[in-house]
Records
---
Amino acid sequence: MAIGAMAAAFAACGGASVEPTPVLTEPTAPESSGEDIVAVLATSDIAVGDNRIVFGLIEPGRGGIKDAEVVVQTFLITDQGIDGPKQTAEAKFITWPGGIGGVFVVHLSFDEPGPRGLGIVMRETGGEEIPVSATIEVQAESLSPAIGSQAPA
């Protein structure tokens, strides 16, 4: 198909006529329901200590995923590779007011700053487990005031 388009473009520009060569195409596999699912993080201030991580799982053409069991594992990313899982926690779906959509929430704790991998495994009712991954950067200190502390002036 691309060769045919190039031939038409050359002919339109006054170039020599070119016979298109047949192009063999590989058969395509049926679309997998999970390969395109993306984790979209809503939490950006992640620091050493306890954290509430908020995220959505989005499937192109379908939108946000709501009805799924979701488990999150954390992995330490080092120069030597990936170490873990360090912790495993179940994420809970929280419906937005109005009931149209929502987000997943998981509570995770980190003991040192640095890059982390999130291994997210989702399973919709009656479906297979679908792995999704994301990376985060854990900071030494949070940018947000601690609960109960005075707000900055």
---
Amino acid sequence: MNATAAATLRSNDAAGGWALLMVAARITPSGGASFYNQWGSVDGQKYGGVSASSAVALDSLTPGSTIDIEALASFPGTYTLPRASVSGSILFLR
């Protein structure tokens, strides 16, 4: 299974400055976890984006197993967040 998280935002910092942005896609099957963090920065008074992917082989699923998918974004600077998204797909093989 693969999931991708992405965030696009505008930095409200002064021109010439910049601030960090962290995006993570997390897949949590029953009894396990997979994380991927992607740090980026956006220049002051400009738009920018960061994306992150996470993949995990789900070979121990049984009937009734659960799979949780989350997209996380952290931006400790001052930003305007116009768009965030998460996407993924599941392929079942026998």
